[in-house]
């Protein structure tokens, strides 16, 4: 998990993050700096519009590791 809080739920991936942003459930969005803008653009727009905290991670590989998955990921989020 990205934070050590026991009650934190982390979601991984653009589609899941967009879905949760649409429901207003996202606290923080994490975006890999090396991800394609076509993948992250809509997430960033929605997050900014909803005043959601956005944190950038250097690489997709690093973000995947922080999410405890074995693949790269462009976007992840912490939801309420």
Structural write-up:
- With 80 residues, the protein is of the alpha+beta class.
- It is built from 3 helices and 4 strands, in the order βαβαβαβ.
- Strands 1-4-2-3 form a 4-stranded mixed β-sheet.
- α2 links the parallel β2 (26-32) and β3 (53-57).
- α1 packs parallel to α2.
- It is globular and about 30 Å long.
- Count all strands and give the number: 4
Encode the helix/strand succession as letters.
Answer: EHEHEHE
Apparent shape: globular
Distance between the termini: 14 Å
Strand count, sense and barrel status of the largest sheet are: 4 strands, mixed
The residue ranges in which pLDDT falls below 50 over 5 or more consecutive positions are none
Secondary structure tally, helices: 3
Helix content: 25-40%
Beta-strand percentage?
25-35%
Structural class: alpha+beta
Average pLDDT over all residues: 90
Radius of gyration: 11 Å
Across the major sheet, the strand order is: 1-4-2-3
């Amino acid at each position: 998990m990205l934070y050590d809080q026991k009650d934190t739920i982390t979601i991984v991936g653009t589609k899941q993050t967009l879905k949760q942003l649409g429901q207003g459930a996202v606290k923080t969005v994490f975006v890999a700096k090396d991800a394609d803008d076509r993948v992250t653009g809509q997430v960033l727009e929605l997050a900014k519009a909803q005043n959601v905290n956005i944190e950038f991670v250097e690489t997709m590989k690093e973000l995947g590791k922080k999410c405890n998955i074995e693949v790269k990921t462009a976007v992840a989020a912490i939801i309420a």
